[in-house]
Design goal:
21% strand, 38% helix, two-stranded parallel sheet, alpha/beta, Rossmann fold, single chain, 285 residues
Length: 285
Amino acid sequence: MKVLVTGATGFVGRHLVAALLARGCEVRAVARNAETAASMPWINAVEFIAADIHAADLDIAKLTAGVDALAHLAWPGLPNYQALFHFEHNLMADYRFIKGAVEAGVSQVLVTGTCFEYGLQSGPLSEQTAPQPSNPYGLAKNTLRVFLENLQRVQPFTLQWARLFYLHGSGQNPNSLLAALDRAIDAGDERFNMSAGEQLRDYLAIETAAGYLAAILQQRDFNGVINCSSGQPISVRALVEQRLRERGASISLNLGHYPYPTHEPMAFWGVADRLQQLMGAEHEA
């Protein structure tokens, strides 16, 4: 199976490429920066193309020629979830690119969505939960999904929409919680400033998430929305304390230093039943 991966050098992309290669897939990796790509451990194992998929003069037919599936991860401008360019620019540029790929003959498309499509709803969130995005990023992603579902009626293709929850691991945004904690430990800081940490979240190691995405791609007849989540809520404080134990660190936690973020509910996590069913089907195959 040959997969075209956009955003191949991003946080998720770099791990997905590795996961696909580990499963014996061929990969055509696309990213804007060839220098970043050259530093990837897999660079000699893939066909790499430096390109901006939003460029008006992009030859989409040439880029997608001979691939079985498109894994579309590229999405500029994160982690600024509130910026209007998510729907003013990315939404239509992404739609045009994916539509072009489908028209060029790509019959299977996986797109990474986001838990922010569910908005400020609390508790367990299943794929049947109606989206209620409350920030521009979630709105843009959810609208792209609706656009693509309408495109399917005119130009049939398989759409695998994988909603990512909270991912952590190498290559993540340096300002994210665990990356900041690791930096504080490495620097020998005495205290670590954080919120009170009672909020419940759904955290997944990036290698695990990338393995799930690769498995979804190989389930070629799966079509629809799927939560890429652990299904297990954990408090932010418990997550931090778990990392401290793993690192054998004794930094003191300055709980309550930061207020709770307003763009997230206090407790939400993904229902992972559909994902687990799909993984079970894979192991039986």
